[in-house]
C-alpha cells in the first residue's frame, strides 16, 4: 500500500500518513514511526535480558522505551486529529496496569510481612536441621517450590528455596547449580495452575478468560512438567551428607495469623470476582485492610505482650529470651509495603505500556493474524511458550491478551501453561531464573542451566501432550 510521508520535526523522524482503521486507529505498521518503536522496544529488551551482566535494573530501559513510544504515537495521532483515540488507548492500558499493580502490591506486602515474622526463616531452619542428604534436599526443595509457588508466587518461592540450597550446599557448586535449576522448573510449574502463582496466570484470571477453579485443570500437566526433568536430574545428584549446623528460629508474634489473613484475602478476592463479577483487585485491597487492622492490634498490644514474655524469661532465667525481647520492634504495614519488589512492578508498567503502544501501532493485530488465523491455535500457543524462554513471559502473555484471539477454554489454558512453564527452558526466561542467577551468583549460571535444556524441554512437551489428552473436551 502506497503512503505519503510527513516530516516529524518534533522528534526528527518521518512517519507515514496511513489509512484509518475502524478498530485500532491508524495503521502505522509500515511507517518509520512504527519501525522506530520496534527498534526502541528491541533495544530496551536487550538491556533487560542483559540485567545480570550490566547490573542495570530491568525497569529503567522499559520505562524510557514506553515514554518514547507513546511520545511518537501522540505526535502522529495529533497530526491526524485522532489524539482522543490515542488517549483512550493510553487510559485503557493504564487501567490494566493499575489493577495488576494494586493486586501484586497487596500480595507482595503479605509475603514481606510473613518474611518479617520469620516464617520463611523457620521453614529454612527446619529443613537444615533434619539432616537430609543432597538428593533428599534436591527433592524436598523442588517439591516445596511446587507446593508453595501457587500461593506465594514463583519468584518469592524460588528465592526462599535458593537460600536453603546455598546454606546446605556450601562449596558443592555442582549440587547448587542443579538444585537451582530444579527449583526454577518446580516454581514455574507450580505457579502455572494458580492465579496467584505467576503474573501471567493472574493476567489471564483478571481478564475473565479462565475462572479460578478452571486453573485446576492444569494441575496434572504442571506436575508432569516438573516431575520428568526432576527424575532425570536426580540421578546426577549425590547422596552424600552436607556439612551443616542447625539453628533454632523463633516465629515472631502474629506470624501464623498473618498466614490465615492472607488465605482470607485470597478468598475475598475470589468472592469479589465470582459473586459480584468485580475485578479481584477490589478483594485484595480489602484484604490489605485486614493486615492493617491486625498490625494496629499488634502495635497496641505489644507492651503487654513484652511484659508477659519478660516475666516468663526472668522466671526461667533465660538470658537469650531477654535479649530477643529487647530487639522486638512494632509491626509496620507501610514498611512492608515499601519492601515490595518495586523494580518488578515498574518493569511491568513499562512492559504494559510498550506492548500497548505496539498494539495501537497495529503490530499485535498483524502478529495475531498470522499466529491465530493462519496457524493452528495449538501450535501458536506452543510457540508462545518457546518465545517466553527467550523473552520474559510477561510481555509475551500481555501481547496475546491484547491480540484477543478467539480461543476455546482449552487453548486459553494451554497458553497459560506454555507461557508459565516455557520460561524454565532458559535461566533468563523467567523471573525466578533471573533472580536465582543473582542470588547464587557464579554458582547457578546461564550455561549451567543451558546444559539441562533438552531435559526441561522434554517436560515441556510432555505437559502439553498431557493437557491435550486430559482436557480434550475443553478444545
UniProtKB/TrEMBL annotation:
Extent of the signal sequence: 1-21
Bilayer topology term: Multi-pass membrane protein
Domain of life of the organism encoding this protein: Bacteria
Alphabetically ordered keywords of this record: Antiport, Ion transport, Membrane, Signal, Sodium, Sodium transport, Transmembrane, Transmembrane helix, Transport
Transmembrane region(s): 31-49, 61-77, 97-113, 134-152, 158-176, 183-206, 218-237, 258-275, 281-298, 345-366, 378-401, 413-440, 452-470
GO BP field: sodium ion transport
Cellular localisation: Membrane
Main location, first listed in the record: membrane
GO molecular function, one term: antiporter activity
A GO term from the CC aspect: membrane
Keyword Transmembrane helix applies: yes
All residue ranges annotated as the Citrate transporter-like domain in the record: 72-420
Pfam families in UniProt: CitMHS (PF03600)
InterPro entries found in the cross-reference section: Cit_transptr-like_dom (IPR004680), NhaD-like (IPR045016)
UniProt family annotation: Belongs to the NhaD Na(+)/H(+) (TC 2.A.62) antiporter family.
Name listed for the protein in its UniProt record: Sodium:proton antiporter
Amino acid at each position: 500500500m502506497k503512503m505519503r510521508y510527513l516530516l516529524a520535526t518534533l522528534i526528527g523522524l518521518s512517519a507515514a500518513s496511513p489509512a484509518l482503521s475502524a478498530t485500532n486507529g491508524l495503521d502505522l505498521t509500515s511507517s518509520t514511526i512504527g519501525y522506530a518503536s520496534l527498534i526502541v522496544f528491541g533495544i530496551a529488551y536487550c538491556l533487560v535480558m542483559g540485567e545480570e551482566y550490566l547490573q542495570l535494573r530491568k525497569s529503567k530501559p522499559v520505562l524510557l522505551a514506553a515514554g518514547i513510544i507513546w511520545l511518537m504515537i501522540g505526535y502522529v495521532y495529533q497530526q491526524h486529529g485522532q489524539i482522543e483515540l490515542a488517549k483512550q488507548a493510553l487510559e485503557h492500558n493504564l487501567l490494566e496496569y493499575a489493577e495488576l499493580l494494586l493486586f501484586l502490591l497487596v500480595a507482595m506486602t503479605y509475603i514481606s510481612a510473613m518474611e518479617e515474622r520469620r516464617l520463611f526463616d523457620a521453614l529454612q531452619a527446619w529443613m537444615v536441621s533434619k539432616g537430609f542428604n543432597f538428593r533428599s534436599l534436591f527433592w524436598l526443595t523442588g517439591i516445596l517450590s511446587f507446593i508453595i509457588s501457587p500461593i506465594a508466587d514463583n519468584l518469592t518461592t524460588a528465592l526462599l528455596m535458593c537460600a536453603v540450597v546455598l546454606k546446605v550446599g556450601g562449596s558443592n557448586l555442582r549440587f547448587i547449580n542443579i538444585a537451582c535449576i530444579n527449583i526454577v522448573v518446580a516454581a514455574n510449574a507450580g505457579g502455572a495452575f494458580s492465579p496467584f502463582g505467576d503474573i501471567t496466570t493472574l493476567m489471564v484470571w483478571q481478564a475473565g478468560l479462565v475462572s479460578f477453579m478452571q486453573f485446576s485443570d492444569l494441575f496434572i500437566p504442571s506436575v508432569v512438567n516438573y516431575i520428568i526433568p526432576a527424575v532425570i536430574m536426580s540421578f546426577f545428584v549425590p547422596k552424600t551428607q552436607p556439612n551443616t549446623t542447625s539453628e533454632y528460629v523463633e516465629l515472631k508474634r502474629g506470624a501464623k495469623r498473618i498466614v490465615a489473613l492472607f488465605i482470607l484475602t485470597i478468598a475475598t478476592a475470589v468472592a469479589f470476582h465470582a459473586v459480584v463479577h468485580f475485578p479481584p483487585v477490589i478483594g485484595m485491597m480489602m484484604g490489605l485492610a485486614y493486615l492493617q487492622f491486625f498490625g494496629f492490634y499488634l502495635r497496641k498490644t505489644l507492651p503487654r505482650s513484652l511484659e508477659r514474655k519478660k516475666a516468663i524469661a526472668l522466671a526461667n532465667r533465660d538470658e537469650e529470651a531477654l535479649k530477643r525481647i529487647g530487639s522486638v520492634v512494632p509491626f509496620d504495614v507501610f514498611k512492608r509495603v515499601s519492601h515490595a519488589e518495586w523494580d518488578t512492578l515498574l518493569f511491568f508498567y513499562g512492559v504494559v505500556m510498550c506492548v500497548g503502544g505496539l498494539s495501537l501501532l497495529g503490530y499485535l493485530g498483524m502478529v495475531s493474524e498470522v499466529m491465530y488465523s493462519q496457524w493452528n491455535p495449538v501450535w501458536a500457543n506452543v510457540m508462545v511458550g518457546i518465545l517466553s524462554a527467550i523473552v520474559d513471559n510477561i510481555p509475551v502473555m500481555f501481547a496475546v491478551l491484547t491480540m484477543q484471539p478467539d480461543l476455546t477454554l482449552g487453548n486459553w489454558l494451554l497458553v497459560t501453561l506454555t507461557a508459565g512453564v516455557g520460561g524454565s527452558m532458559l535461566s533468563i526466561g523467567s523471573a525466578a531464573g533471573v533472580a536465582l542467577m543473582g542470588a547464587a551468583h557464579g554458582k547457578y549460571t546461564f550455561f549451567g542451566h543451558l546444559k539441562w535444556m533438552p531435559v526441561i524441554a522434554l517436560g515441556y512437551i510432555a505437559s502439553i501432550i498431557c493437557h491435550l489428552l486430559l482436557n480434550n473436551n475443553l478444545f
